[in-house]
């Protein structure tokens, strides 16, 4: 298939698809995190509560036993589907406890569960 990547008239660039990119602007949102199965290699999607903080996307849970969590650690190339767009990125475990606490506070503002210890994954979008 053919796709227009750039439109120019008399040398004036009107559209450059390479620079046209949707952004996630919400601080707290519910996207679908798509990971590659560590055993099957197949893509798996799960809707999760996510935090957008300092240009990175964070997902957390109580324990590291969840499939999406283990898949993201084993295969860090992930996708985030949100508002009709798919974003690709690299996931990594957050080892900074202060950052994990901050993400919990942002994820559960004013809630008691914001104080619970969690494991957190940070996604840097491509």
UniProtKB/TrEMBL annotation:
<dbReference type="InterPro" id="IPR004378">
    <property type="entry name" value="F420H2_quin_Rdtase"/>
</dbReference>
<protein>
    <recommendedName>
        <fullName>Pyridoxamine 5'-phosphate oxidase-like FMN-binding protein</fullName>
    </recommendedName>
</protein>
<dbReference type="InterPro" id="IPR012349">
    <property type="entry name" value="Split_barrel_FMN-bd"/>
</dbReference>
<dbReference type="GO" id="GO:0016491">
    <property type="term" value="F:oxidoreductase activity"/>
</dbReference>
<dbReference type="Pfam" id="PF04075">
    <property type="entry name" value="F420H2_quin_red"/>
</dbReference>
